[in-house]
Amino acid sequence: MAFSALDPLDLYDVRSELSEEEAMVRDTVARMVDDKVIPLMREAFEQHSFPRELITEVAELGLLGSSIEGYDCAGLNSICYGLICQELERGDSGVRSFVSVQSSLVMYPIHAYGSEEQKQRWLPAMARGEAIGCFGLTEPHGGSDPGNMKTHAKRDGDDWILNGSKMWITNATIADAAVVWASTDEGVKGFIVEKDMPGFETQEIENKFSLRASVTGALFFDNVRVPAANVLPGVTGLKGPLSCLTQARYGISWGVIGAAQACLDEVLRYTQDRVLFGQPLNHTQTIQIRMADMARRITTAQLLSLQLGRLKDSGKLNPTQVSVAKWNNCRAALDIARDARDILGGAGISAEYVPIRHALNLESVITYEGTETIHQLVVGKELTGVNAFG
Ligand SMILES: Cc1cc2nc3c(=O)[nH]c(=O)nc-3n(C[C@H](O)[C@H](O)[C@H](O)COP(=O)(O)OP(=O)(O)OC[C@H]3O[C@@H](n4cnc5c(N)ncnc54)[C@H](O)[C@@H]3O)c2cc1C
Fold first, then answer.
1. What is the pLDDT of residue 85?
2. What is the share, in percent, of the chain residues with pLDDT greater than 70?
3. Residue of the nearest CA to atom 19 in ligand 1?
4. What is the pLDDT of residue 373?
5. How far is the CA of 204 from the centre of ligand 1 (A)?
6. What pTM does this model have?
7. Is pLDDT above 90 for 390?
8. 299, 309, 319, 365: which sits with the fewest CB atoms below 10 Å from its CB?
9. Which residues are paired to 202 by β-bridges?
């Protein structure tokens, strides 16, 4: 019996597991990424600038807050959100980061914990890309331990007075509103800080060697008066920000698959044409083994994320399962990108080929939303019942 050839980027035919709607979302986003994102990313990365024209493109396709029902959002399932992240990150992790932050870290908490007035005010505008959000949790003294938060807010009549700072914040200087997590006498609360509020300043972090096509910055609060109407009423405690991170980490587990696929795709083509010692590079055993290993790791990552998405849509998701996928898939993608860079030889350090850009980006992606170590310790705690963080 003759077998038909497999898709090197989808060895287990995950595509056949997708519903018609999921496949359509994937194809639509893939086309947009091929036509509009990929042609811009090399230059955007070199120029250290986020291509803001892409905000309209992603908004028009309904990719911002795509999992939210109502409020002009698309109401798609979690697999669709994952596929959106995968295709965007095939273009660049910076564009996927923009969509992750806007969708999972800003629109999600406003939808899950906000007042009706906050939802009406922000969600439709954010879905259209007319209002940009950022998420302030990490502080300069250590992002892995958000329980040790120094940013604090005190009640003053009907208002709150906010002081402190946040570091490494995606979209910081382009945001109209920041969802800021601060400690209060009543526990950690979420505040919607608007860009023009007196005492609120932002500063861009320059000279990054990673995620150069994404805006990253710091937030500073000096006696910022935040009205009670801007406090998220539906949550108190660290579970607020942690629940947002679960959403975003889920999307990242899919996103990095796209970056890894782009790298494998590049080396499959390159090693066909590169002739060394009288034969194309892809005829050698070690090159084949390395590319086979990339395909194996991509396949594993795809199946992890697909099952994670099914668990999420059936309401059975455990955050530890998200840690397994975020850890596994980021590690796989980073290793694949670094190895792809090496297989290209000297050409691998050129921006003409995608692996070096993806590898540099993935150095951030493996660090943000919980470093690899943090996710390993989450899994360790689940296995042993012992908290080894402290
Ligand atoms: C490009 C970029 C964008 C980002 N965007 C955002 C954003 O939008 N919003 C936001 O709030 N944050 C954001 N972050 C911050 C990110 O989440 C943090 O960088 C991350 O959580 C790690 O925190 P840290 O950098 O302070 O490192 P630290 O917490 O200081 O960790 C330093 C090292 O110590 C290790 N470590 C920590 N705890 C332990 C332990 N118990 N045992 C052993 N080792 C340990 C870590 O794994 C790491 O290797 C972003 C970061 C980057 C780089």
1. 98
2. 100
3. 368
4. 98
5. 18
6. 0.98
7. no
8. 319
9. 219
pLDDT in tens, 305-361: 999 999 999 999 999 999 999 999 999 999 999 999 999 999 999 999 999 999 999
Q: Could you write out the DSSP letters of every residue in 221-273?
A: EEEEEEEGGGB-TT--STHHHHHHHHHHHHHHHHHHHHHHHHHHHHHHHHHHH
138 touches ligand 1 (CB under 6 Å): yes
Amino acid at 252: I
Residue to substitute in 93, 97, 371 for testing ligand 1 pocket (most ligand atoms within 8 angstroms of CB): 371
Helices (H) and strands (E) in the chain, counts: 12, 11
Beta bridge partners of 74: 69
Ligand 1 atom nearest residue 170's Cα: 8
Q: How far is the CA of 324 from the centre of ligand 1 (A)?
A: 17
Per-residue model confidence (pLDDT) at position 2: 87
Type of residue at 24: M
Q: For 87-143, write each residue's pLDDT tens digit.
A: 999 999 999 999 999 999 999 999 999 999 999 999 999 999 999 999 999 999 999
Ligand 1 center–CA 371 separation, angstroms: 6
Distance 250 CA to ligand 1 centre (A): 17
CA distances for 214 relative to 99, 206, 375, angstroms: 11, 11, 24
Cross-strand pairs, 224: 162
Q: DSSP secondary-structure letter at 144?
A: T
50 in contact with ligand 1, CB cutoff 6 A: no
Nearest CA to ligand 1 atom 40: 389
Residue ID of nearest Cα to ligand 1 atom 14: 168
Query: What does the alpha-carbon distance between residue 165 and residue 151 come to, in Å, rounded to a whole number?
Result: 6
> Residue 1 pLDDT more than 90?
no
Q: Is 113 helix (H, G, I), strand (E, B) or coil?
A: helix
**How far is ligand 1, taken at its centre, from the CA of residue 242, in Å?**
14
Query: The tokens of 235 are what?
Result: 């949550």
Average pLDDT over residues 260-274: 98
Ligand 1 contacts CB of residue 203 (under 6 A): no
- Pairing, β 216-227 against β 159-170: antiparallel
Ligand 1 atom closest to the CA of 390, numbered from 1: 41
